[in-house]
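Morning, I've got a small favour to ask if you have a moment. Here's the protein in full, and shout if anything looks odd to you:
***
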Amino acid sequence: MGMRKTGLAFGLAAVCAVWLVACGGGGGSAGSTASDSSSSSSVSTASGTVTGFGSVYVDGVALEDAKSYTRVENADGTYTNVSLKLGERVRVAYDSSGTASTVTVDAAVIGAVSALDSSALTLTVAGQAVSVNTDSTAGVVTVFGGGYTAFTDIAVSDLVEVHGSAVYSSTLGKYVVQATRIEKKSSISAVRVMGTLSSLDTSAQTFAINGLTVAYGSATLVPSTTTLANGQTVVVWGASGSLVTTSTGLSLTASRVRVQNAALADGSTSGTTQLGGVISSYSATSGSFQLAGVTVKVGSATLVPTTATLADGAYVQVTGTVGSDGSITATRIVVRQSSTSSDLATVRLSGAIEGLTDQNSFVVRGVPVDASGIDRTTSCVGVTLAVGTVVNVTATVQSGTDVVLATQLSCPASTSYTIRSLSGTAGSVDSTALSFVLTTSTGTQTVSWSDQTVFAGVTAATLSGASVVVQGYLNSASVLVARSIRNPSVSTGRSDADAYSGLESSSSRSWTVYRSRR
């Protein structure tokens, strides 16, 4: 598992590589259902890990997502609106102006933990090997959530959602998910596994994804015209009870199987695409490698930096065009270096402070920030930070905590889509106009919602009288357009950052506990 500190390390910020996008930051999960909209051939796509919110940051690139759908695909084919979190893997469709229309969250595996190796920092979930990185010198560390702060918090039988980049290990003879995020779940609607299809048996109607045998005889295939083949990247869903151990190993009866196209887009194959992940099966002779199950042809692509070397285990961001054979012909390849301050290795946050304990301890976009290392004489000159102060933060992920460490801080003017968070009680709900009045400690604010809004711990029907936290942006009429509405007093509406914002108490998540351990 030597690649744990070279490839996986590239994990988070790196993996962030290209899946540009989306709104939201901490926040709840379940929400309203959004339909799957097919995209036109003119749409560009990007795939990678979420490394910031501003809009959204991926490898230092901001994409405007204020009006996009941010969603997760369910086992039955519907989509549910969700708020994005650091370290999640996403697929983004965006237009020529860089405006995202959809951001789809793509977990590598969702299921129960069946094995742990604390020495190698590995775990097994639904037959998939998962590797964790804690070495910030080799790359960005794995982000933990849902109550976890470190690998030691994980226990066998825990339900988890794992995001990351699949890398082929010649030693193990299978792909290993180099985790960018591991989140504890209280429950799951289905087991989900994403990986490379192998050992296809059309007679038995089975195939394998690493150590997992998938029975697809009764599954719905998506697209409906698809023909399964070895080497395809697939997403498989199955009921939790259908994951069983047989005499030949672990088996899952699939209810649905989606075959991803080369651009990893739902509705079309884009002409241009960006894809991030860790290189495996690199061949200097053929000038190609595998990245997230896709063959990348190096050709005459520009390497950044020019002194970079392509090799297995390197985290890269590839920009190129999708060919008819499903491969990507690269035009530019950015290779993640050991620097912890480059665009591929940093977290970027932009928005209004939503919770503040002191001038060095605050929450932005659902992410707790430690700014104790910032020189106040040069950053935010003359500004006393407070809830509502707009800030830009550059930070790094730290091992053993969900608090990011700020390396840069500025206090810019707000923009049209500056995201802010307000807490209060909902009233005067108008289900026709899709609006309500939020009464806060300082006054009232009109709030509107749409079919893109994430509801967590509350629904449109139960808004009246509910204590909610609304995250959104102010439109030209000074109405707060909600990206998410959640009730933190209900478990499904809680965010890990609530403990740092004073919305809930936590023995392991507080500024006092954090400071005592630093």
